[in-house]
Design brief:
Elements: H1 2-20, E1 27-28, H2 38-47, E2 51-54, E3 57-60, H3 65-68, H4 73-110, E4 118-121, E5 139-145, H5 146-149, E6 152-156, E7 161-166, E8 172-177, E9 187-192, E10 208-211, E11 216-223, H6 228-235, E12 239-242, E13 254-256, H7 271-283, H8 291-299, H9 312-334, E14 349-351, E15 360-361, E16 364-365, H10 367-376, E17 393-398, E18 413-417, E19 423-433, E20 448-450, E21 463-468, E22 480-482, E23 489-498, H11 500-503, E24 513-514
Parallel strand pairs: 1-2, 4-13, 9-10, 21-22
Antiparallel strand pairs: 2-3, 4-5, 5-11, 6-9, 6-12, 7-8, 7-11, 14-17, 15-16, 17-23, 18-21, 18-24, 19-20, 19-23
Helix pairs in contact: 4-7, 4-8, 4-9, 4-10, 9-10
């Protein structure tokens, strides 16, 4: 019996040491000397430790140790694997907005859309593939490969519409409509790929040149007429066509997505993600600002125009990097290290629009802020950042309850919307699942409560919204959003036409609270 017990203890010890890579020799990296004088620095090349304990295990060195020796063959192998893993994680984070847009582009092709086709998502179900889409908002989207179309004309009619031109990193290139430079007066754009020249002899008095920063271009359009039928009529006034067809009375194609069509633009898990990245690298035109990441991808075998046939070892590394990279993006999305709390400090409501519209912060590229935004949402326009009472919309994002715990589908929560919400038009609460970041699909087929859905009010004019897998007793269906017990979820609170009470924080915004 004693031998059996002893064997079990030894086995357990081996398992634990294998998991934690506990070192039995060498010194901790914390013991490596620093702040040395020139004389001490030279001497350290003879006396530094030959084995150093680090987060990736023991690193061993030849004579002279860490400072004066070479990494041994074992250390080289470990360091090379770790370097490749770290590069893959950073490349994963970089590619998040590209993969999101690319997947949507491919989906639109499956709907029958060609270059310049405007695709309408009108039915509630049709919008359930859009990252954090709103069921009450009509969406019209156009994608085009500018190297296929050549200079692409978009005629924006005068009237109540708003829209954006984005590159494939979801950076805004231009706004148009009431929130654009034309201020709703209408404008004719000629959209060009990088380094593409404007058409010879084009009329500078009629057209505005828009130089896109990637080969593919995304255009989002919103017709702002309150009546859906009027909005449809107005949308048909938009025209998109190659400049080369300008003399041929070109027609614009429109496709309406059926409500029962299942689709999603989200980023795939695992190796499927890297296969998409390879397609994007082969297809796109990149500026110099992307050079370092492209070098990382090249060292992983993903290079423009080159065959990619990863070995079993490379596949294993990339699969793990996809899992860790995705987890890192979820961390910076749902536990933001760069929370923007200039409004409503002390609540757990964050602000959605954290990166700048073009990723620039002086000389800094907002890589992580962009990835956090484009993991949970999609598209950017300059007007999205407008902070003017009565105009545009403001988004608050909620991932945690009042106690700072993440929101779980198995629990019962409430949110009180105090009287007179600060929205000139209306407010809305929409629930999304963490996996797809799209509107939650529940048995009740309703992920939304808003000022337009007529929820029951309390005596003081406030509205109490319930989130739970089963409708609580005595709660009106209009005040309940059903959650799925095996999923985690988050929510967006939107104020359309935000009033001064939002910006001066006189409106008492409440946290989501767990019912205990």
């Amino acid at each position: 019996m004693k031998k059996i017990v002893f064997s079990l203890i030894v086995a357990a010890g081996l398992l634990l040491s294998g998991c934690n890579e506990t070192s039995t020799k060498g010194v901790s990296y914390e013991k490596i000397a620093d702040k040395l004088t020139p004389t001490e620095f030279r001497k350290y090349g003879e006396t530094s430790p030959t084995v150093v304990n680090t987060r990736i295990g023991d690193l061993s060195f030849t004579a002279g140790g860490f400072a004066g020796g070479y990494p041994t063959k074992e250390a080289v192998k470990k360091l090379r694997d770790e370097l490749n893993f770290q590069k893959a994680c950073q490349a994963y984070i970089w590619a998040v907005p590209l993969v999101s847009y690319y997947n949507w582009f491919e989906v639109q092709k499956s709907f029958g859309a060609k270059e310049g086709t405007i695709v309408q998502y009108k039915a509630f179900e049709a919008k359930q593939g859009i990252l954090t889409g709103n069921g009450t908002t009509p969406y019209a989207i156009m994608y085009a490969d500018l190297m296929n179309t050549g200079p692409l004309v978009m005629e924006v009619p005068a009237g109540a519409a708003a829209g954006i031109v984005d590159d494939m990193f979801q950076r805004c290139v231009r706004d148009f409509g009431v929130s654009g430079e034309d201020r709703g007066k209408g404008v004719k754009l000629i959209i060009l790929a990088p380094d593409m020249e404007a058409p010879e002899g084009y009329d500078e008095n009629k057209f505005v040149i828009v130089q896109n920063t990637t080969r593919d271009v995304f255009v989002g359009i919103r017709a702002l007429q309150p009546d859906p039928k009027e909005a449809d009529i107005f949308l048909k006034k938009f025209k998109v066509y190659p400049y080369s067809e300008i003399a041929n009375n070109p027609q614009t194609d429109f496709v309406v997505v059926e409500g029962e069509t299942p689709w999603g633009q989200w980023q795939d898990h695992g190796m499927a993600y890297w296969k998409t990245v390879k397609k994007i690298v082969d297809h796109e035109i990149f500026s110099e600002r992307e050079g370092y990441i492209l070098a990382m991808l090249q060292s992983l075998g993903i290079e423009k125009g080159k065959l990619w046939n990863p070995t079993a070892k490379q596949k294993k590394l990339l699969k793990e990097a996809a899992v860790v990279g995705e987890s890192m993006v979820k961390m910076i999305t749902f536990d933001k290290p760069f929370r923007k709390d200039d409004l409503y400090r002390g609540t757990h409501w964050d602000r959605l629009m954290i990166p700048s519209y073009n990723d620039k912060d002086g000389d800094i590229e907002q890589l992580y802020k962009r990835s956090a935004f484009t993991w949970e949402a999609v598209s950017r326009g300059k007007a999205y950042y407008m902070e003017v009472p009565g105009l545009g919309q403001q988004y608050r994002t909620g991932y945690k309850d009042a106690d700072g715990n993440h929101l779980l589908g198995s629990k019962h929560y409430t949110l009180t919307i105090p009287p007179d919400p600060p929205a000139k038009l209306f407010w809305s609460i929409v629930v999304y699942d963490v996996n797809t970041r799209t509107m939650i699909i529940n048995k009740s087929k309703n992920p939304i409560v808003s000022g337009r859905t007529n929820p029951v009010q309390e005596a003081d004019g406030s509205v109490i919204i319930h989130f739970s897998p089963e409708k609580p007793e005595g709660v009106d269906t209009k005040n309940w959003i059903q959650t799925n017990p095996k999923e985690s979820w988050f929510t967006y609170l939107r104020f359309y036409g935000p009033t001064e009470r939002y910006f001066d924080e006189s409106y008492p915004l409440q946290d989501v609270k767990l019912v205990k």
